[in-house]
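queue> pop job 88
queue> type: inverse folding (structure -> sequence)
queue> payload:
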């Protein structure tokens, strides 16, 4: 533990200056989550089944990762994301015939149950108790779904049951950025078995900074020492080994969230130039429910990744990339979900990409 009470009365964590971890160094020094082996066994079984049944598989990551500040965690930093994008998209991928590995932040929204979220549409509010005749207490037989809720419930429930019967949805959970990184590496290595038939849809909001285990306080940080100073290390950019090593053939879609819309396209191009994957979907925080931009390389085979590029690379040539804006009109159609169109577009692009690769063999 590297906490020290400074002479100015402040708590200081991680006395060394912040480091930038390579992926190798990260996995060599940070321990795997205890559930990893069990999760990998479930993923192997799931993928075997999908291979036999010749389904395409998509990995959807969803929700925000946390960064614990103590080993016995009381406090942590969190990343913004309710998990709406991931949970909604997972449903549309299932509808399009994909099998889905849904890797999500514990307690964030999930496919199907998201329609009955405790904050926007609480479960108990759509049930009624039919008053029993006489003085007897109500029984289970008296519980009824409100008439105005029935059509939607029936639709959601029957799709959910059909997915369960088909065995096309596997749910995995993460909390910390460490859980996320270990799980993403393990799942993508397993998925590489499927070659071009797998798609990666990286919608999770992943922490950029973390406290290595070796530098964390064991116990709850005490408040009696004045202000708190924490210096964090940089989380390795995981897209780099994902594209270059773990899953060379997968169709990889990453997301870019910005609050300044003017940065969306340049940042997306930078990511494509740096990692060499297939699509970046840019979304501005306040417009993300009705507008996104797809940015992708123009040529069918993307320019290969540029490992030498520094974080502050100059903007790559715009002629190498194309943008497709996708907008929906929520005033005209308030029930419409933009994920339906995002997924439809990706399903088309993935199929075209597989076709092109097959033709070029
Ligand atoms: O869940 P909602 O409330 O609906 O919100 C959805 C969303 C806005 C969170 C989602 O649409 C979104 O944009 N997710 C990505 C958030 C983001 O911009 O993350 P980033 O800039 O930290 O990372 C960009 C990409 O790099 C991501 O695809 C991420 O998987 C990847 N990354 C991030 C960190 C890291 N260390 N390594 C990475 O590879």
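queue> result:
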């Amino acid at each position: 533990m590297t906490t020290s009470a400074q002479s100015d009365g402040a708590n200081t964590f991680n006395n060394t200056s912040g480091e930038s971890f390579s992926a190798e160094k990260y996995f060599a020094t940070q321990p795997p989550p205890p559930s990893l082996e069990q999760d990998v066994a479930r993923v192997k079984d799931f993928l075997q089944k999908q291979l036999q049944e010749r389904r395409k598989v998509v990995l959807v990551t969803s929700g925000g990762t946390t960064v614990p500040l103590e080993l016995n965690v009381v406090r942590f930093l969190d990343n913004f994301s309710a998990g709406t994008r991931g949970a909604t998209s997972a449903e549309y991928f299932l509808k399009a015939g994909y099998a889905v590995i849904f890797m999500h932040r514990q307690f964030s929204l999930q496919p199907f149950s998201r329609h009955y979220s405790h904050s926007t549409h609480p479960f108990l509010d759509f049930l009624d108790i039919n008053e029993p005749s006489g003085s007897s207490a109500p029984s289970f037989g008296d519980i009824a779904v409100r008439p105005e809720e029935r059509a939607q419930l029936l639709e959601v429930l029957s799709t959910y049951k059909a997915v369960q019967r088909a065995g096309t949805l596997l749910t995995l959970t993460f909390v910390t950025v460490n859980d996320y990184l270990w799980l993403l590496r393990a799942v993508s290595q397993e998925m590489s078995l499927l070659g071009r038939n797998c798609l990666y849809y990286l919608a999770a909001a992943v922490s950029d900074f973390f406290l290595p285990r070796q530098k964390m306080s064991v116990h709850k940080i005490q408040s009696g020492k004045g202000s708190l100073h924490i210096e964090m290390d940089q989380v390795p950019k995981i897209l780099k080994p994902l594209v270059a090593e773990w899953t060379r053939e997968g169709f990889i879609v990453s997301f870019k969230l910005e609050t300044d819309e003017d940065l969306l396209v340049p940042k997306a191009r930078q990511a494509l130039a740096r990692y060499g994957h297939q699509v970046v979907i840019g979304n501005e925080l306040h417009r993300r429910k009705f507008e996104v931009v797809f940015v992708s390389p123009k040529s069918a085979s993307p320019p290969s990744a540029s490992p030498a590029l520094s974080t502050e690379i100059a903007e790559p040539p715009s002629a190498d990339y194309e943008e497709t804006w996708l907008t929906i009109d929520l005033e005209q159609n308030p029930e419409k979900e933009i994920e339906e169109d995002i997924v439809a577009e990706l399903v088309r692009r993935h199929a075209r990409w597989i076709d092109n690769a097959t033709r070029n063999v």
